[in-house]
Design goal:
It is a single chain. Helix content is 62%, strand content 7%. Helix 2 crosses helix 3. The radius of gyration is 20 Å and the shape is elongated. Strand 2 and strand 3 form a beta hairpin. With 138 residues, the chain is mainly alpha-helical.
């Protein structure tokens, strides 16, 4: 089982444009603001100022999603977590929020609504957890 990444953004929530820019950066494995701006403007129905891209890049850096390499003339932004790691972190956060409800009736109603495939996934997860705990004890 893959553990949660140690390097985590300070803030997990992202806006629509922030998410779009992160997708571009993951696709390109790092990018300059110009590359991002050009990619967005490939859609003829889109308008977006270059300054807006820069603002979002600074915001994503402040939130801990990006790091900026300033060693070259064109600054290059790279993700601090992979797309897969980001999905894991968001799923973990959603699960924590769900469990924080703390109402057994809500959790039971949710569990009762699961289909067979979901139940099988939960059983597989439970078996992995059990094996991991057993391995730690040994």
């Amino acid at each position: 089982m893959v553990p949660l990444p140690e390097n985590r953004p300070k803030q997990l929530s992202l806006g629509t444009l922030e998410t779009e820019i992160m997708q571009i950066i993951w696709d390109l494995d790092g990018a300059t603001a110009k590359q991002i701006h050009d990619r967005i403007l490939k859609d003829p129905d889109r308008e977006l100022a270059y300054a807006s891209v820069m603002t979002v890049l600074r915001r994503l850096t402040k939130k801990g999603w990006l790091v900026c390499d300033t060693s070259n003339r064109a600054f290059r932004w790279s993700p601090t977590v992979s797309r897969h790691q980001a999905q894991m972190l968001k799923a973990h956060q959603q699960l924590q929020e769900f469990l924080a409800v703390g109402n057994p009736d809500v959790v039971a109603a949710f569990a009762d609504s699961l289909d067979q495939a979901s139940l099988e996934q939960i059983q597989a997860i439970a078996q992995r957890l059990q094996a991991q705990r057993q391995a730690r004890e040994d």
